[in-house]
Amino acid sequence: MPIPTNRIVGPAAHGRHRRKLAWCRCPGETRRGRSLAVESWAHDPLASAGMKATTLTAQPRDPIELLRGLRAVREYRPDPVPDAILDEILEVGRWSGSASNRQPTEVIVVTDHETRQQLAQNGAGPAANAPLAIVIITSGDADRHDLEVFDEGRLVERLLLAARALGLGGNIATLKGDGPETIKRALGVPADRRAWVVVTIGYIDGAARKARPPRPNQGRKPGEAFVHRDRY
Ligand SMILES: Cc1cc2nc3c(=O)[nH]c(=O)nc-3n(C[C@H](O)[C@H](O)[C@H](O)COP(=O)(O)O)c2cc1C
Questions:
Q1: Which residue segment(s) compose the domain that 115 sits in?
Q2: pLDDT value of residue 136
Q3: Domain count, the chain
Q4: For residues 163 and 134, what is the distance between their CA atoms, to the nearest angstrom?
Q5: Is residue 141 part of a domain?
Q6: What CATH number does the domain containing 35 carry?
Q7: Ligand 1 — pocket residues by CB below 6 A?
Q8: Which residue has the higher pLDDT, 122 or 8?
Q9: What is the mean pLDDT of residues 74-93?
């Protein structure tokens, strides 16, 4: 699988860089000019944050491990997310596919402390401690509600995967109760738009994550309860 080669690599995200070409599958990828990009994929934030392989993939060795290992991360260090890293995450999001390519999503990037507390108070709890919250706005077309929600989900997953690939953790949360309308007013979102989902992103606080009380229902149902072949 070709590795992206035009990526900006922010210094803060990759302090633990190792010259490791774990994902390199392409001839020529060992050139020095490309190795930084490859390193950023090989870098495993969860392993370096003290996570166990049983909790999350300790060292994503290939794209499938990255995809399968994506988990909800709600424990963040206060370090800000560098603009170069944020830009990359947003650019991945901007290229999300959408139904009929209507591109009904927009995002509001929130770093302001007070606004994040307001997001948390309105249902998106992890925004309180995340250095960065991304409020997803959709066009609010009632006739295309299901498609918009689908498009929104695709966008969110891509943002989270991009964050993970760049050495950060993230989570999705929803605004509850009157939260969507309250937040729309607070952020100046036009009344006809829809705001429901908040993505939080930040560097993983490994110690806080390790100290979490054990939570039930953390795994996934077995494959035989998930996959049907040929018929239900
Ligand atoms: C549609 C949707 C809504 C969610 N809402 C919240 C939420 O409001 N707050 C929150 O902390 N997590 C929320 N989550 C995250 C889920 O709790 C998380 O994906 C699930 O527990 C699996 O976590 P894991 O991958 O770490 O096992 C939401 C996830 C989805 C897909």
A1: 12-210
A2: 98
A3: 1
A4: 12
A5: yes
A6: 3.40.109.10
A7: 71-72, 74, 123, 125-126, 171-174, 218
A8: 122
A9: 97
